[in-house]
Design brief:
By secondary structure, the protein is an alpha/beta fold. The protein has 11 helices and 16 strands. About 35% of the residues lie in helices and about 20% in strands. Strand 2 and strand 3 form a beta hairpin.
Length: about 375
């Protein structure tokens, strides 16, 4: 059953649960008083975390559990477990897998034009570097930035140029984009499938790999800067044998890791070490769009560049959408290009009432 949990903790170190996180509850609530909690539930994790595995005990109070009506079961996002910042330092919650809120004052010394140009340059570099990975001149790249600013689109746009010709020629595709959770054995098999020169695997928001020591070691071997990158699977596996995957192979392809994770804000020392090891093996692009002001200017730039042209809206309607988002940016569920597209959908379908509908669907606390 999919639930939300108002509060709770897991593991020996009493790690706190981010309020309102969605979990997959396995079985019923078990009464067992401990550390001030009434009992515990079991939550499916799918990640190799200490105290976890396939399921993880989460201690909580029964009154804090609320079922989500109509929501199917899925993979629990235990990466949203959080640690609150000490009072007085910041009115925010810092987690290992979200970005810290950065005030607009952080970029007060830059003009709008400078921010737009700096952002445009970084996205151009992103495309150029993706082309370099595609040709095999660059082995690996990490791209980090907030969600919904076009990280994935910039990479996919470059990689997709030759994809149509491969499909028409019935050739094996040269790249694949992997999203969501992935096991260590799944990572190993995927790397083998795309191990040939000029093949590329894109890991898009696949941060669960960072929580699995085995997967991390495999990934570090694949991204290593040595001339020969040999990857081994030293445990017997019927799954790999059935798929014809050997227990050792040389990886000659490229890899791109796209993440929302802000590396310098990670608080876990162990995770910091893993990230440092990955960063040392890859070219690293931080799109540097951490403030609302930078995101707003990105929205203006992309709309001006033709993002909404396919909607066949008048220029005044496009301006109306952008201005609505800017005026209400502090209430938006997500200040991103995806929000622009959602508002454009509403404007196209409900031209007379789209703003009222947007206040309900894309804004917080405005229903």
């Amino acid at each position: 059953m999919r639930i939300t949990l108002a509060q709770g903790q897991y593991g020996a170190k009493s790690n706190q649960i981010f309020p309102g996180i969605e979990l997959d509850m396995v079985g019923d609530f078990v009464t067992e008083a401990r550390n001030g909690w009434e009992g515990y539930i079991k939550a499916r994790s799918g990640y190799n975390i200490k105290g976890g595995g396939e399921t993880c005990k989460v201690f909580c109070n029964q009154r804090d559990i609320q079922a989500i009506a109509g929501q199917p079961a899925g993979v629990t996002m235990l990466q949203a477990l959080s640690k609150p910042v000490k009072a007085g330092k910041m009115d925010a919650v810092v987690t290992d897998f979200t970005q810290v809120k950065v005030p607009d004052s952080a970029v007060a010394d830059e003009s709008d034009e400078q921010i737009i140009e700096r952002t445009r340059l970084r996205f151009e570099i992103l495309k150029d570097m993706t082309s370099a990975v595609k040709t095999g001149d660059v082995r690996a790249m990490i791209v980090t930035g907030p969600p919904g600013v076009g990280k994935s689109f910039g990479v996919e746009e470059v990689l997709a140029r030759d994809d149509l010709f491969d499909m028409m020629g019935q050739r094996k595709p040269k790249y694949e984009i992997v999203k969501g959770a992935m096991s260590a054995i799944g990572l190993y098999a995927k790397l083998y499938k795309f191990s040939d020169p000029k093949n590329i695997i894109v890991f898009d928001d696949c941060d669960s790999i960072l929580l699995d020591d085995v997967a991390l070691n495999i990934l570090k071997a694949a991204l290593d800067t040595s001339k020969k990158r040999t990857i081994s699977w030293n445990t017997d596996s019927r799954v790999l044998r059935s798929e014809g995957v050997p227990d050792k192979f040389d990886f000659k392809g490229g890899a791109i890791f796209i993440t929302n994770l802000k590396f310098e804000n990670v608080r876990s020392k162990k995770l910091q070490e893993h990230l440092a090891a990955l960063e040392s093996r890859c070219h690293f692009i931080d799109l540097r769009m951490d403030t609302d002001r930078e995101k707003v200017l990105r929205i203006k730039q992309i709309v001006k560049d033709g993002m909404l042209d396919s909607y066949e809206l008048e220029d005044t309607a496009k301006d109306e959408i952008v201005n609505f988002i800017l005026e209400n940016r502090s209430h938006m569920r997500e200040l991103s290009l995806r929000t622009v597209l959602k508002c454009a959908d509403l404007k196209k379908s409900f031209p007379a009432n789209w703003q009222n509908m947007a206040r309900v669907t894309v804004m917080k606390g405005m229903a």
